[in-house]
Amino acid sequence: MYTEVENYNLVAKLGNLKTIVLLLKAINFKENATCFGTENGLKVTVEDAKCMQASAYIPAHVFQVFNLKEDVIFRVNLNILVECLCMFWSNINCQGSSVALQLFYEGNGHPVTVLIEEDGIITDCSLKTQEPDELLDFHLEPENVLNKVVLQTELLKDILSELDSTSDFIELFLSPAPPFFRISTTGLAGICHIELPHDGELVDNFQCTSTAMSSYKLSHIKPAMKALSCANKVSLRTDTCGLLCFQYMVKTDEGHTCYIEYYISPVIDPNG
């Protein structure tokens, strides 16, 4: 589409627009996102108030073309990008319809150009880029991970749909002894405890080394649930500081695997 591709630091092509739309919609809870292009692929990160962070990962091998001269980092308006891509959402889901995407980025100060091709018709979107804000380095050191639970997403969907929406906080209890896995809320309906089966058929893995209980803002948990609609499995991990990580595995139509990660900081004193 663009002939002088050698002028660009990043040139990427996806044969199917559906994957990137699902991933970006799942983390679209703030206006702006920081994009990282490395030899591993593309990462799009959104952060809120330095206490929660979400990233969508598209590995390089998922792209039909992924040419990178050097690592790139830039910030874009995620609301506008998602809005542009969603113009083709109904077409993406039509049988036999082919919607491809190409992305071009020249470097600092230049816009990101997104070309969307549908049955030979090309739509050209140019998005302004900004200097990225410094992001917190959210991560879980393996030696600090206390608990890890891998679930089929349908189980977590059912549980979270039952949560009391009038509660400000959600308490997560994980233990190697009964009740093993419990989610609690306190709202207008009073205290509600939901116990999850730690060895049911929808639980793929339950690793719990010690009893841990942490509270999180429900308003931070809710955005993390957006990814449930497009994921196959979700891994839930907590560390010694109470940092919570949801990692979602998202299968593409072509059989590739992409990931979405949400990090949520605990509330130190929910009663304070």
Automatic annotation (TrEMBL):
Compartment list: Nucleus
One BP annotation, GO: DNA repair
Pfam families: Rad1
InterPro entries reported in the protein's UniProt record: Cell_cycle_checkpoint_Rad1 (IPR003011), DNA_clamp_sf (IPR046938), Rad1_Rec1_Rad17 (IPR003021)
Chief place of localization: nucleus
Keywords: DNA damage, DNA repair, Nucleus
GO cellular component, one term: checkpoint clamp complex
Matching SUPFAM superfamilies: DNA clamp
Family: Belongs to the rad1 family.
Entry protein name: Cell cycle checkpoint protein RAD1 isoform X6
Protein species of origin: Bombus impatiens (Bumblebee)
Gene assigned in the entry: LOC100745680
